[in-house]
Amino acid sequence: MKEDSLVVHEIYASVQGESSFAGLRCAFVRLTGCNLRCAWCDTEQAFHGGQRLARRDVLARAIALDTPLVELTGGEPLLQPAAIPLLRELCDAGRTVLLETSGEADVSRVDPRVHKIMDLKAPGSREHHRNRWSNLAHLGPGDEIKFVLADRADYEWMRATIHHRGLDRLGPGLLASTVWGALDPKDLVAWVIEDRLGVRVQVQLHKIIWGSKAQGV
Fold first, then answer.
1. Percent helix, strand and coil across the chain, each rounded to 5?
2. What stretches of the chain show up as alpha helix (H) in DSSP?
3. Residue-level pLDDT at 40
4. Backbone phi, then psi, for 158, in 5-degree steps?
5. How far apart are the first and last CA of the chain?
6. DSSP 144-205
7. Structure confidence at residue 158 (pLDDT)
8. What CATH number belongs to 5-210?
9. What pLDDT sits at residue 1?
10. Distance separating alpha carbons of residues 147 and 155, to the nearest angstrom
11. Tens digit of pLDDT for each residue in 145-163?
């Protein structure tokens, strides 16, 4: 695929549902396609289909939604070469730009102005062997790591990974959330308090507001 167009699943305005930006108005550009198949994935609708649009049109539609934040997500947005220049152009347009990425795709070429929100896949995802650990060297103080946890074993894996990989340096940029309907957030909070773990416990705000099946919100 060339850098002048992207296959887009949807573009819409809502509020940010996760991360340290939760609750703020945000334009979402969701690209089609993902090379992972996490056991708990909640965006399988973005694996296929979509519409091919010129990059300049995607930029214009995102800017026209007139939100302070713009998030590029998927699927896995970095599978499409045009994502890299689009992120740069969104920054140039004066937006605060967020990138949701799986942790498998290379983030080294992402504009440093972009706030990278990168997964580290726990064993419960069944894709933890795909984590690209070299990406950690390309995360800065404005970036965040998200752990999605299905059970106590995933929590213990997260705790060990934070310590062994020296991720404490990210401070509030460490996000811990539960697989919807699989792990009770109250249990996660209890474990974090007991271990005095320096993570930000988060819930998926959009699912609380509109329900777990809603799309395009």
1. 35, 25, 40
2. 55-64, 83-92, 152-164, 185-195, 205-210
3. 93
4. -60, -50
5. 28
6. EEEEEESSHHHHHHHHHHHHHTTGGGGGGGEEEEE-TTTS-HHHHHHHHHHHT---EE---H
7. 98
8. 3.20.20.70
9. 53
10. 9
11. 999 999 999 999 999 999 9
